[in-house]
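for the writeup, i need someone to sanity check this before i put it in the appendix. the sequnce is what the collaborator sent (i think, or maybe the updated version? ugh). structure was predicted straight from it, no edits. if anything looks off just tell me and ill rerun, i have time this weekend
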Amino acid sequence: MSAIKKIKQNFKQNTSQQFDVIISGGGLSGSLMALSLSQLIKADGSSLSIAIVETLPFKQANPADDTALFDARVLALSHGSAKYLDKLGAWQYLKGDVCAITDIDISDRGHFAKARLTAKEQGVNALGYVIDMALIGKAQLKALSKNTSENSAGTKNIHWFSPDSIADITWKESCQENSQDETSKNKQQVTVQLNSGITLSAQLLLGCDGVQSPVRKLAKIKVSCEDYQQVALIANVSTCQAHHNKAFERFTEFGPIAMLPLKSVNSSSPTDGKSRCSLVWTMTPEQAQEIKNLSDDAFKVELERAFGSYLGAITHVGKRDTYPLVLLQAQQQSYHRMALVGNASHTIHPIAGQGFNLGLRDVEFMAELVKKALAAEQDIGNFGLLQAYQMNRAKDQRQVIELTDSLVTLFANDLPPLVLGRNIGLQALNFITPLKNALVKKTMGY
């Protein structure tokens, strides 16, 4: 064979590659999905071969230092999410940076009712944790790098295609799912064409590629979108008094204010450095534009007026960013040999801090389904698996969306009967244990 023919043959081999799973998106959901699947073993004792396609550049040499893949925002991790990250080996890289939430105070500005949720009542050390999104992503990548550098055969089983993106998808139908001949096996796959010219094939394609999911669009999966006509203003602030690991949810006539405790960065401060909080202030777009443009001193005054004196005066304000709030839902969670995960499937109102936690449960349930399929030596992209994913995730999403939407509607309305009803409800939370436990268990991710 001539040298030119060898080069052409090698090029052809390199541009057409086979995997067990293709993950579109290497950000928070994608890296978590890869980490979850990387720990599963096939019947022959080998690890799953996983391709991750990511549009942003990825530092192969030291992926844990790569912050470009992750947003700079802060996330509230539920108790259940922290437990799952611990199971995957990522929590060991996070626990030194998280701030535990031991208490949650809920109040309605200008009205009498208040409710308090405590970790002690639930028999746990923390109801949840607060941490920078980028640190979660880095911990996941570090665990992924450590756990999947080589499988039992000494072969790398995680392959990054970055920077790259999926240009087209070919779904190959098979009428002989149980056939063992090679021709039928080749039909039991999904094939993606990358913009780089590389072709990847696998049994299962997972869309972990965010709100504007390319694979969702290529599959022509429709979405329903509801604009809340609200904006979340986000900033880190410091207060005169220490937060003592307490989170606040303060409902106002314009929208809720969440004040989440953050880990100390300055232990020499008068309050032992424990007065740093993450602010999520929901308001109308008009208000957001006006308040975002205020000077720091004027902003402090407005925030103190809206939030109250629970933590004393606002002493410092960090960079302010705003995000429009919409409810987005894919009309189906799965397609032929494909499923949507995280924000590709749903984005919700931040009122209860459930967005990332809901996406994490997408990942956890998909990994469990794949694990069961491998144990039974079944096709991991089979119709039954995807239907089970569709039904489970649709139910969980519906419950969380109903919770967040009801809170948005209930506390955004100043009609006297609703005001009275919600205040009675808040007070009831303190005295009706089954009602409180049901709410807390859901927000804890169980």
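Residues 229 and 257 are 16 Å apart (CA to CA). The chain has two domains: 3-70+135-221+331-402, 91-134+225-326+403-443.
thx in advance!!
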